[in-house]
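Methods — Computational structure assignment.
A single polypeptide chain was analysed. Its primary sequence is given first, followed by the predicted tertiary structure written as structure tokens.
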Amino acid sequence: MTDGPSEPDFDRHMLEALVCPVTQATLSYDPERRELVSKAAGLAFPIRAGIPIMLIDEARQLKADD
């Protein structure tokens, strides 16, 4: 059996063009969780199949220890 295709990598050059949809602040990339993080908004936006999902409803609320 094969595991199937791996998840595509996120193009980090795209990070320069993306901003937080809530605060317009810059984002940082968390490769371990495959998320774009907005510390200003306290949100982490998922990356699925190499595509950032910049919807507030899809974002994860950051905890104090994140």
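Note: The chain has a mean pLDDT of 87.
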